[in-house]
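Build the 3D complex.
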Amino acid sequence: MIRIDSVTKRYPDGTVAVDRLSLDIPDRSITVLVGPSGCGKTTTLRMINRMVEPTEGTILIDGEDSRRQPVTTLRRSMGYVIQNAGLFQHRTIADNIATVPRLLGWGKQRARERAAELMERVGLDPSLARRYPYQLSGGQQQRVGVARALAADPPVLLMDEPFSAVDPVVRKGLQDELLRIQDELGKTIVFVTHDIDEAIKLGTMVAVLREGGRLAQYAPPAELLSRPADGFVEDFLGADRGIRRLSFFPSSALRPATDAVIPVDASAERVAATGAAHLLVTDADNRPLGWAAREELTGGGVRTDRLLPYGRPFVPGTDSLRTALDCAVLSPTGWAVAVDGDGRVTGVVSQQTIGEAIRAAHTAGRAEAEAEDEKVAG
Amino acid sequence: MSGFFDIPSDLQHSWTGLIGLHMREALLPVAAGLLLALPLALLCGRFRWLYPPVLGVTTVLYAVPSLAFFVVLIDYTGQTELTVMIPLALYSLVVLVPAIVDGVRSVPDETLAAATAMGFGPVRRYAQVQLPIAAPAVIAGLRVATASSISLVSVGALIGNQGALGNLLAAAQKYDRPELAVNAVLTMAALAIVCDALLVLLRTLLTPWMPRGGTARPKPAARRAEITPEGAVR
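Done.
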């Protein structure tokens, strides 16, 4: 565990970048430092590997003061990923990745094998090994940056706004990749960003810092959204935190209704038996085709070319209530289409049903929070 | 018996001998200047206050006429090649120090931060990251220093025939053989061009990592300007 113990960074001109900050960073999880410019998040990160020395306070790595080992040894035990990747433009991709192993004295062959292994892990084509950084896209460069940081298999990974200089689509890919890699490797990651959505997506714990380097709140993302500590955190989270919080509620409680789903070859009697105004028509394989108004179907036979689009389906249990609600809002009929993992329809869900599920989840969340408060108070 | 390549015997060298001598007197000072400039530039990069005085001193040295240098040095080093080469080495600093410092400073901040974070010490970082990336700028400096050194060697003719090809200029007057002067000028120009071409070749060999042609993607350094880096760190 990394323990930041009432650390202050004051510069000679009197500016305080970090003010008596204390944080316990748990092992094998992603801790995100987030806040506006000038909140000291990068300074805090750089104090962990001593690129910036604290003015006061100590940083303990597994219980030991980080100043007790030589600074280069400390740094080589912590991978570092920076904005724009910061690759060595004069070295090939493989040599970039092999940097720390070579510094640690590994043989050429072993370092090269390790580089190849890591390129595969971060999703880079092996043919890129002998290329130079300028020949890669921004997203590829950032993957190399991550591979380079992982090269000597350090227990700790420090990431300083690693994905903020790439476009949103590439950024999402890199974030998903990081979560996948973290699932496999279980590093202790400290991640700096100014993007609260990124913080909420990636963080196991999120530390919100405010200007002047003071800690505003340190909590898991769901708690941050449900119970922001003060107005600053609330403002920083943005206007739609209620909607975003739904990402943390599973949709498994939703019971999709099946009576409004009919196969494309349904008889007129079958249509007549349903009560809904709109019916979801499915093909022989039980995959969605589209919506039809009931009165159009009463004569029997489905005109597939006149169906309304069914929009994006969701998978109950896998997707969150936020996704389910989004599907319902986007659907022309106001009903979300539920499918299983193979894309076969399991039913449809109304906005009203989703609303009830949200209220139930809120009630459960409040009860949990109260129980916790009582525990703390008692 | 007065051909273009017939060198008067009092110069004690053939034409090719003079070329060898000239190259030695021109290139050794540049090499010495480079050896001196590398650590100087490292210090200037590390202690920023040092750069203006260093630049000032090298500029003042450059302003000292070579003849004045010779007069001072001749008491210590006599009428030798060394007396010619010491001022040339000092002159090369005025080009090489700024070239290296600017080249090293052009290395993107994030590259430096990444190197530091990976556990490079200052000297290793300078030698393995900053200098290789600064290579194009360093070689640009070497090209200027080399060309100027090749032409300046001829001044050595003023102190007991230490000017290599420059001695031909004096001989041309003495023996009334203008073709020797033409020979000296053309040969020196050719040497300068050949050396310059070799340095360009060296740069190409040293920088396979540089984008060539117009299809390159923008480098991180170019993109840096668009992104305001997070403040706090100084």
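Residues 4 and 179 of chain B are 6 Å apart (CA to CA).
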